[in-house]
Amino acid sequence: MSAHDHQPGAQTGRRLTAGLLTLLLAAGAAAATAGAADAAAAKPKPDRSDRLSLNHNETVLLHAWTR
Amino acid sequence: METEQDLVQALTEAARLRSEGNYSAALEHAVQARLLLTESGTATEADTAEALAGVLLMEGGLRRHLGDLAQAARTLNEALTLSEQGGATTEGVRLRLAIQGELAAVHRTGGDYEQAERLLRSAIARAKQLPTPAPPELANLLNELAVTCKHTGHFTEAEQLYHQVLALLERALSSYRLDLAAVHHNLGGLAHARGDFAAAEPHARRSLALSEHALGADHPVTAADRAALAAILDALGRHDEAETLLLQALEVFTRVYGDDHYEIAGTCNNLAAIAYRRGELARAEQLYRRSLAIKEQTLGTLHPELAPTLNNLALLKEDQGDRPEAAALYQRALAILEGSVSPDHPVLAACRANHAALLGAQRGQRPVWPGGG
Lengths: 67, 373
Description:
heterodimer, A: mainly alpha, B: mainly alpha, 17 helices, 79% helix, 0% strand
Protein backbone atom coordinates (compact mmCIF):
# COMPACT_ATOMS: atom_id res chain seq x y z
CA MET A 1 0.00 0.00 0.00
CA SER A 2 1.25 3.45 -0.76
CA ALA A 3 1.47 6.15 1.90
CA HIS A 4 -1.63 7.96 0.70
CA ASP A 5 -3.97 4.99 0.29
CA HIS A 6 -5.99 6.10 3.28
CA GLN A 7 -6.68 9.53 1.84
CA PRO A 8 -9.99 10.36 0.14
CA GLY A 9 -9.70 10.03 -3.61
CA ALA A 10 -6.64 7.80 -3.50
CA GLN A 11 -8.43 4.86 -5.10
CA THR A 12 -9.84 7.10 -7.79
CA GLY A 13 -6.42 8.64 -8.36
CA ARG A 14 -4.81 5.25 -8.73
CA ARG A 15 -7.52 3.98 -11.06
CA LEU A 16 -7.31 7.15 -13.12
CA THR A 17 -3.56 6.94 -13.36
CA ALA A 18 -3.59 3.36 -14.49
CA GLY A 19 -6.39 3.94 -16.99
CA LEU A 20 -4.85 7.05 -18.45
CA LEU A 21 -1.44 5.47 -18.73
CA THR A 22 -2.98 2.60 -20.60
CA LEU A 23 -4.64 5.06 -22.94
CA LEU A 24 -1.54 7.14 -23.33
CA LEU A 25 1.13 4.51 -23.68
CA ALA A 26 1.26 2.25 -26.70
CA ALA A 27 -2.25 0.96 -27.19
CA GLY A 28 -2.91 -2.70 -26.88
CA ALA A 29 0.68 -3.62 -26.17
CA ALA A 30 0.71 -2.30 -22.61
CA ALA A 31 1.16 -4.79 -19.82
CA ALA A 32 -1.70 -3.25 -17.92
CA THR A 33 -1.99 -3.51 -14.17
CA ALA A 34 -5.15 -4.85 -12.59
CA GLY A 35 -6.24 -1.28 -11.82
CA ALA A 36 -5.68 -0.27 -15.40
CA ALA A 37 -7.79 -3.15 -16.59
CA ASP A 38 -10.69 -1.87 -14.46
CA ALA A 39 -10.41 1.68 -15.64
CA ALA A 40 -9.60 1.11 -19.28
CA ALA A 41 -11.48 -2.05 -20.15
CA ALA A 42 -14.27 -0.26 -21.95
CA LYS A 43 -12.16 2.52 -23.41
CA PRO A 44 -11.29 2.70 -27.10
CA LYS A 45 -7.60 2.33 -27.81
CA PRO A 46 -5.76 5.12 -29.58
CA ASP A 47 -3.88 3.90 -32.57
CA ARG A 48 -0.16 4.39 -32.98
CA SER A 49 -0.19 6.48 -36.13
CA ASP A 50 2.13 9.14 -34.75
CA ARG A 51 4.28 7.09 -32.43
CA LEU A 52 7.34 6.85 -34.67
CA SER A 53 8.85 10.03 -36.06
CA LEU A 54 9.23 10.53 -39.78
CA ASN A 55 12.18 12.17 -41.47
CA HIS A 56 11.93 14.65 -44.34
CA ASN A 57 13.40 14.46 -47.82
CA GLU A 58 14.41 17.83 -49.18
CA THR A 59 15.84 18.40 -52.62
CA VAL A 60 19.35 19.87 -52.62
CA LEU A 61 20.45 21.04 -56.04
CA LEU A 62 24.01 20.92 -57.31
CA HIS A 63 25.65 23.38 -59.64
CA ALA A 64 25.92 21.88 -63.13
CA TRP A 65 29.73 21.97 -62.90
CA THR A 66 29.89 20.00 -59.73
CA ARG A 67 27.91 16.99 -60.91
CA MET B 1 -17.02 10.31 -10.37
CA GLU B 2 -18.09 12.89 -12.91
CA THR B 3 -14.62 14.38 -13.35
CA GLU B 4 -13.18 10.98 -14.08
CA GLN B 5 -15.75 10.31 -16.80
CA ASP B 6 -15.20 13.75 -18.36
CA LEU B 7 -11.46 13.26 -18.20
CA VAL B 8 -11.45 9.87 -19.86
CA GLN B 9 -13.87 11.15 -22.48
CA ALA B 10 -11.67 14.19 -23.24
CA LEU B 11 -8.58 12.05 -23.49
CA THR B 12 -10.23 9.38 -25.60
CA GLU B 13 -11.48 12.07 -27.96
CA ALA B 14 -8.01 13.62 -28.11
CA ALA B 15 -6.52 10.23 -28.98
CA ARG B 16 -9.17 9.61 -31.63
CA LEU B 17 -8.68 13.02 -33.27
CA ARG B 18 -4.91 12.57 -33.16
CA SER B 19 -5.16 9.22 -34.87
CA GLU B 20 -7.30 10.89 -37.56
CA GLY B 21 -4.61 13.52 -38.06
CA ASN B 22 -6.79 16.35 -36.71
CA TYR B 23 -4.08 17.67 -34.41
CA SER B 24 -5.62 21.08 -33.64
CA ALA B 25 -8.89 19.60 -32.41
CA ALA B 26 -6.99 16.85 -30.56
CA LEU B 27 -4.97 19.51 -28.76
CA GLU B 28 -8.14 21.24 -27.56
CA HIS B 29 -9.30 18.00 -25.95
CA ALA B 30 -5.88 17.28 -24.46
CA VAL B 31 -5.84 20.76 -22.90
CA GLN B 32 -9.36 20.16 -21.59
CA ALA B 33 -8.19 16.88 -20.02
CA ARG B 34 -5.24 18.63 -18.43
CA LEU B 35 -7.48 21.35 -16.97
CA LEU B 36 -9.92 18.77 -15.59
CA LEU B 37 -7.06 16.97 -13.92
CA THR B 38 -5.42 20.06 -12.47
CA GLU B 39 -8.73 21.55 -11.33
CA SER B 40 -9.85 18.31 -9.70
CA GLY B 41 -7.56 19.12 -6.79
CA THR B 42 -6.00 15.67 -6.76
CA ALA B 43 -3.12 16.44 -9.12
CA THR B 44 -0.76 16.75 -6.20
CA GLU B 45 -1.24 13.10 -5.34
CA ALA B 46 1.71 11.09 -6.62
CA ASP B 47 -0.51 8.75 -8.64
CA THR B 48 -2.47 11.55 -10.25
CA ALA B 49 0.70 13.51 -10.90
CA GLU B 50 1.79 10.60 -13.05
CA ALA B 51 -1.53 10.69 -14.89
CA LEU B 52 -1.08 14.42 -15.45
CA ALA B 53 2.38 13.69 -16.83
CA GLY B 54 0.73 11.33 -19.32
CA VAL B 55 -1.77 14.00 -20.37
CA LEU B 56 1.05 16.52 -20.77
CA LEU B 57 2.90 13.98 -22.91
CA MET B 58 -0.01 13.88 -25.29
CA GLU B 59 -0.35 17.67 -25.24
CA GLY B 60 3.38 18.18 -25.86
CA GLY B 61 3.38 15.71 -28.73
CA LEU B 62 0.47 17.47 -30.38
CA ARG B 63 2.14 20.86 -29.95
CA ARG B 64 5.25 19.45 -31.65
CA HIS B 65 3.18 18.17 -34.55
CA LEU B 66 1.61 21.61 -34.88
CA GLY B 67 5.05 23.24 -34.91
CA ASP B 68 4.87 25.02 -31.55
CA LEU B 69 8.25 23.74 -30.39
CA ALA B 70 8.83 26.16 -27.51
CA GLN B 71 5.51 25.34 -25.85
CA ALA B 72 5.98 21.63 -26.61
CA ALA B 73 9.35 21.68 -24.80
CA ARG B 74 7.87 23.46 -21.77
CA THR B 75 4.95 21.02 -21.61
CA LEU B 76 7.17 17.95 -21.92
CA ASN B 77 9.70 19.18 -19.37
CA GLU B 78 6.84 19.65 -16.93
CA ALA B 79 5.64 16.12 -17.79
CA LEU B 80 9.12 14.72 -17.14
CA THR B 81 9.36 16.43 -13.76
CA LEU B 82 5.92 15.13 -12.74
CA SER B 83 6.65 11.62 -13.97
CA GLU B 84 9.75 11.49 -11.81
CA GLN B 85 7.49 11.73 -8.75
CA GLY B 86 6.01 8.38 -9.78
CA GLY B 87 7.21 4.98 -8.77
CA ALA B 88 9.53 2.53 -10.46
CA THR B 89 6.71 0.40 -11.85
CA THR B 90 7.10 -0.74 -15.43
CA GLU B 91 4.27 1.60 -16.47
CA GLY B 92 5.94 4.52 -14.70
CA VAL B 93 9.29 3.83 -16.36
CA ARG B 94 7.58 3.45 -19.74
CA LEU B 95 5.86 6.80 -19.26
CA ARG B 96 9.21 8.47 -18.58
CA LEU B 97 10.74 6.79 -21.64
CA ALA B 98 7.84 7.99 -23.80
CA ILE B 99 8.24 11.56 -22.50
CA GLN B 100 12.01 11.47 -23.09
CA GLY B 101 11.43 10.23 -26.65
CA GLU B 102 8.97 13.01 -27.37
CA LEU B 103 11.21 15.64 -25.79
CA ALA B 104 14.13 14.40 -27.88
CA ALA B 105 11.94 14.73 -30.97
CA VAL B 106 11.30 18.36 -30.03
CA HIS B 107 15.05 18.99 -29.64
CA ARG B 108 15.77 17.24 -32.94
CA THR B 109 13.02 19.16 -34.75
CA GLY B 110 14.43 22.37 -33.29
CA GLY B 111 17.91 21.50 -34.59
CA ASP B 112 19.50 20.71 -31.21
CA TYR B 113 20.83 17.32 -32.31
CA GLU B 114 23.33 17.03 -29.48
CA GLN B 115 20.70 17.39 -26.77
CA ALA B 116 18.35 15.00 -28.60
CA GLU B 117 21.08 12.39 -28.92
CA ARG B 118 22.10 12.64 -25.25
CA LEU B 119 18.52 12.21 -24.07
CA LEU B 120 17.89 9.30 -26.42
CA ARG B 121 21.03 7.34 -25.56
CA SER B 122 20.23 7.61 -21.86
CA ALA B 123 16.59 6.55 -22.38
CA ILE B 124 17.58 3.63 -24.63
CA ALA B 125 19.99 2.34 -21.98
CA ARG B 126 17.17 2.51 -19.40
CA ALA B 127 14.67 0.81 -21.74
CA LYS B 128 17.09 -2.06 -22.34
CA GLN B 129 17.23 -2.69 -18.58
CA LEU B 130 13.50 -3.43 -18.44
CA PRO B 131 12.43 -7.07 -18.38
CA THR B 132 11.72 -8.66 -21.74
CA PRO B 133 9.78 -8.31 -23.92
CA ALA B 134 11.17 -4.88 -24.72
CA PRO B 135 8.64 -2.08 -24.17
CA PRO B 136 7.13 -0.50 -27.31
CA GLU B 137 8.86 2.74 -26.33
CA LEU B 138 12.24 1.16 -27.19
CA ALA B 139 11.32 1.02 -30.89
CA ASN B 140 10.27 4.65 -30.69
CA LEU B 141 13.53 5.71 -29.03
CA LEU B 142 15.72 3.76 -31.48
CA ASN B 143 13.79 5.23 -34.42
CA GLU B 144 14.13 8.73 -33.01
CA LEU B 145 17.88 8.28 -32.59
CA ALA B 146 18.11 6.98 -36.16
CA VAL B 147 16.29 10.06 -37.49
CA THR B 148 18.69 12.25 -35.49
CA CYS B 149 21.67 10.33 -36.91
CA LYS B 150 20.32 10.92 -40.42
CA HIS B 151 20.20 14.65 -39.73
CA THR B 152 23.76 14.72 -38.45
CA GLY B 153 25.03 12.57 -41.34
CA HIS B 154 25.80 9.43 -39.34
CA PHE B 155 24.14 7.23 -41.90
CA THR B 156 25.68 3.87 -41.00
CA GLU B 157 24.48 4.09 -37.42
CA ALA B 158 21.06 5.29 -38.61
CA GLU B 159 20.71 2.23 -40.83
CA GLN B 160 21.73 -0.15 -38.02
CA LEU B 161 19.20 1.46 -35.70
CA TYR B 162 16.36 1.18 -38.23
CA HIS B 163 17.10 -2.52 -38.61
CA GLN B 164 16.93 -2.90 -34.83
CA VAL B 165 13.51 -1.23 -34.93
CA LEU B 166 12.37 -3.59 -37.69
CA ALA B 167 13.50 -6.58 -35.62
CA LEU B 168 11.52 -5.30 -32.60
CA LEU B 169 8.42 -4.71 -34.73
CA GLU B 170 8.62 -8.19 -36.22
CA ARG B 171 8.51 -9.61 -32.70
CA ALA B 172 5.54 -7.48 -31.67
CA LEU B 173 2.24 -9.28 -31.49
CA SER B 174 -0.03 -6.27 -31.74
CA SER B 175 -0.74 -4.22 -34.83
CA TYR B 176 2.38 -2.53 -36.07
CA ARG B 177 1.65 -1.72 -39.70
CA LEU B 178 1.92 2.03 -39.17
CA ASP B 179 5.16 1.68 -37.27
CA LEU B 180 6.43 -0.50 -40.10
CA ALA B 181 5.32 2.19 -42.54
CA ALA B 182 7.27 4.78 -40.54
CA VAL B 183 10.46 2.72 -40.64
CA HIS B 184 10.15 2.24 -44.41
CA HIS B 185 9.50 5.97 -44.79
CA ASN B 186 12.67 6.64 -42.85
CA LEU B 187 14.77 4.01 -44.65
CA GLY B 188 13.66 5.65 -47.91
CA GLY B 189 14.70 9.01 -46.50
CA LEU B 190 18.06 7.64 -45.45
CA ALA B 191 18.71 6.25 -48.94
CA HIS B 192 17.60 9.63 -50.36
CA ALA B 193 20.07 11.45 -48.12
CA ARG B 194 22.82 9.08 -49.29
CA GLY B 195 21.91 9.78 -52.92
CA ASP B 196 20.83 6.18 -53.53
CA PHE B 197 17.49 7.11 -55.04
CA ALA B 198 16.79 3.75 -56.71
CA ALA B 199 17.09 2.03 -53.33
CA ALA B 200 14.91 4.71 -51.73
CA GLU B 201 11.88 4.29 -54.01
CA PRO B 202 10.67 0.79 -52.90
CA HIS B 203 10.80 1.83 -49.23
CA ALA B 204 8.85 5.01 -49.94
CA ARG B 205 6.24 3.15 -51.99
CA ARG B 206 5.77 0.51 -49.30
CA SER B 207 5.35 3.16 -46.64
CA LEU B 208 2.80 5.08 -48.71
CA ALA B 209 0.79 1.93 -49.49
CA LEU B 210 0.66 0.93 -45.79
CA SER B 211 -0.35 4.42 -44.62
CA GLU B 212 -2.90 4.95 -47.35
CA HIS B 213 -4.52 1.60 -46.55
CA ALA B 214 -4.61 2.22 -42.80
CA LEU B 215 -5.27 5.96 -42.61
CA GLY B 216 -6.71 7.03 -45.95
CA ALA B 217 -5.38 9.43 -48.56
CA ASP B 218 -6.09 12.65 -46.66
CA HIS B 219 -4.25 11.88 -43.43
CA PRO B 220 -1.15 14.06 -42.77
CA VAL B 221 0.98 10.93 -42.23
CA THR B 222 -0.04 9.67 -45.68
CA ALA B 223 0.68 13.14 -47.08
CA ALA B 224 4.16 13.02 -45.52
CA ASP B 225 4.74 9.65 -47.20
CA ARG B 226 3.57 11.11 -50.50
CA ALA B 227 5.90 14.11 -50.15
CA ALA B 228 8.83 11.84 -49.28
CA LEU B 229 8.20 9.65 -52.34
CA ALA B 230 7.92 12.80 -54.47
CA ALA B 231 11.42 13.96 -53.51
CA ILE B 232 12.79 10.55 -54.51
CA LEU B 233 10.94 10.53 -57.85
CA ASP B 234 12.16 14.07 -58.54
CA ALA B 235 15.73 12.93 -57.96
CA LEU B 236 15.11 10.05 -60.37
CA GLY B 237 14.08 12.57 -63.04
CA ARG B 238 10.32 11.95 -62.80
CA HIS B 239 9.52 15.60 -62.13
CA ASP B 240 5.87 15.67 -63.27
CA GLU B 241 4.92 12.70 -61.11
CA ALA B 242 6.78 14.28 -58.21
CA GLU B 243 5.01 17.61 -58.63
CA THR B 244 1.56 15.98 -58.64
CA LEU B 245 2.35 14.17 -55.38
CA LEU B 246 3.77 17.32 -53.78
CA LEU B 247 0.71 19.39 -54.65
CA GLN B 248 -1.55 16.70 -53.16
CA ALA B 249 0.57 16.67 -49.99
CA LEU B 250 0.57 20.46 -49.80
CA GLU B 251 -3.22 20.53 -49.86
CA VAL B 252 -3.40 18.15 -46.87
CA PHE B 253 -0.64 19.93 -44.93
CA THR B 254 -2.35 23.30 -45.42
CA ARG B 255 -5.70 21.93 -44.27
CA VAL B 256 -4.19 20.30 -41.16
CA TYR B 257 -1.47 22.75 -40.18
CA GLY B 258 -2.43 26.10 -41.73
CA ASP B 259 -0.05 28.12 -43.92
CA ASP B 260 3.06 28.32 -41.75
CA HIS B 261 4.30 24.86 -40.81
CA TYR B 262 7.69 23.29 -41.54
CA GLU B 263 6.02 20.46 -43.52
CA ILE B 264 4.82 23.18 -45.89
CA ALA B 265 8.28 24.76 -45.97
CA GLY B 266 9.88 21.48 -47.07
CA THR B 267 7.19 20.91 -49.69
CA CYS B 268 7.64 24.44 -51.08
CA ASN B 269 11.41 23.89 -51.30
CA ASN B 270 10.88 20.73 -53.34
CA LEU B 271 8.22 22.31 -55.59
CA ALA B 272 10.59 25.22 -56.16
CA ALA B 273 13.38 22.86 -57.23
CA ILE B 274 11.07 21.34 -59.85
CA ALA B 275 10.11 24.81 -61.13
CA TYR B 276 13.80 25.76 -61.23
CA ARG B 277 14.71 22.74 -63.31
CA ARG B 278 11.99 23.71 -65.78
CA GLY B 279 13.48 27.19 -66.02
CA GLU B 280 10.52 28.82 -64.21
CA LEU B 281 12.82 31.00 -62.16
CA ALA B 282 10.30 33.56 -60.92
CA ARG B 283 7.98 30.83 -59.58
CA ALA B 284 10.95 28.97 -58.12
CA GLU B 285 12.20 32.07 -56.32
CA GLN B 286 8.75 32.79 -54.88
CA LEU B 287 8.50 29.24 -53.54
CA TYR B 288 12.06 29.24 -52.13
CA ARG B 289 11.43 32.53 -50.34
CA ARG B 290 8.16 31.22 -48.90
CA SER B 291 9.95 28.08 -47.73
CA LEU B 292 12.76 30.09 -46.16
CA ALA B 293 10.39 32.51 -44.42
CA ILE B 294 8.40 29.63 -42.87
CA LYS B 295 11.57 27.84 -41.78
CA GLU B 296 12.97 31.00 -40.20
CA GLN B 297 9.69 31.66 -38.43
CA THR B 298 9.10 28.12 -37.17
CA LEU B 299 12.65 26.80 -36.69
CA GLY B 300 14.69 29.97 -36.13
CA THR B 301 17.39 31.51 -38.28
CA LEU B 302 20.18 29.06 -37.40
CA HIS B 303 18.48 25.72 -37.99
CA PRO B 304 20.33 23.21 -40.24
CA GLU B 305 17.13 22.59 -42.21
CA LEU B 306 17.41 26.09 -43.63
CA ALA B 307 20.51 25.00 -45.52
CA PRO B 308 18.87 23.11 -48.44
CA THR B 309 16.71 26.14 -49.27
CA LEU B 310 19.58 28.62 -48.83
CA ASN B 311 21.70 26.49 -51.15
CA ASN B 312 18.99 26.17 -53.79
CA LEU B 313 18.10 29.85 -53.67
CA ALA B 314 21.80 30.71 -54.02
CA LEU B 315 21.99 28.61 -57.17
CA LEU B 316 18.99 30.45 -58.58
CA LYS B 317 20.42 33.89 -57.72
CA GLU B 318 23.65 32.87 -59.41
CA ASP B 319 21.69 32.01 -62.54
CA GLN B 320 20.03 35.41 -62.39
CA GLY B 321 23.48 37.01 -62.28
CA ASP B 322 23.26 38.13 -58.66
CA ARG B 323 26.53 36.65 -57.50
CA PRO B 324 26.84 38.75 -54.32
CA GLU B 325 23.52 37.48 -52.99
CA ALA B 326 24.36 33.94 -54.11
CA ALA B 327 27.66 34.09 -52.22
CA ALA B 328 25.96 35.45 -49.09
CA LEU B 329 23.36 32.65 -49.18
CA TYR B 330 26.01 29.92 -49.58
CA GLN B 331 28.05 31.41 -46.74
CA ARG B 332 25.01 31.52 -44.51
CA ALA B 333 24.21 27.85 -45.27
CA LEU B 334 27.82 26.84 -44.58
CA ALA B 335 27.96 28.76 -41.31
CA ILE B 336 24.79 27.01 -40.13
CA LEU B 337 25.91 23.51 -41.12
CA GLU B 338 29.53 23.55 -40.03
CA GLY B 339 29.61 22.35 -36.46
CA SER B 340 26.11 20.90 -36.44
CA VAL B 341 26.45 18.06 -38.97
CA SER B 342 29.26 15.62 -39.77
CA PRO B 343 32.03 17.05 -42.03
CA ASP B 344 31.05 14.70 -44.87
CA HIS B 345 27.30 15.40 -44.71
CA PRO B 346 25.91 15.51 -48.28
CA VAL B 347 24.11 18.85 -47.83
CA LEU B 348 27.30 20.43 -46.48
CA ALA B 349 29.27 18.88 -49.35
CA ALA B 350 26.76 20.26 -51.89
CA CYS B 351 26.92 23.76 -50.40
CA ARG B 352 30.72 23.70 -50.40
CA ALA B 353 30.90 22.46 -54.00
CA ASN B 354 28.36 25.04 -55.19
CA HIS B 355 30.11 27.84 -53.31
CA ALA B 356 33.46 26.79 -54.79
CA ALA B 357 31.90 26.80 -58.28
CA LEU B 358 30.61 30.32 -57.71
CA LEU B 359 34.03 31.50 -56.55
CA GLY B 360 35.55 29.88 -59.65
CA ALA B 361 33.06 31.71 -61.87
CA GLN B 362 33.83 35.00 -60.10
CA ARG B 363 37.53 34.49 -60.85
CA GLY B 364 36.58 33.92 -64.47
CA GLN B 365 37.85 30.39 -64.45
CA ARG B 366 34.74 28.94 -66.04
CA PRO B 367 31.45 30.36 -67.30
CA VAL B 368 28.30 30.00 -65.23
CA TRP B 369 26.05 27.32 -66.66
CA PRO B 370 22.61 28.93 -66.95
CA GLY B 371 19.69 26.85 -65.70
CA GLY B 372 21.78 24.77 -63.35
CA GLY B 373 20.22 21.56 -64.68
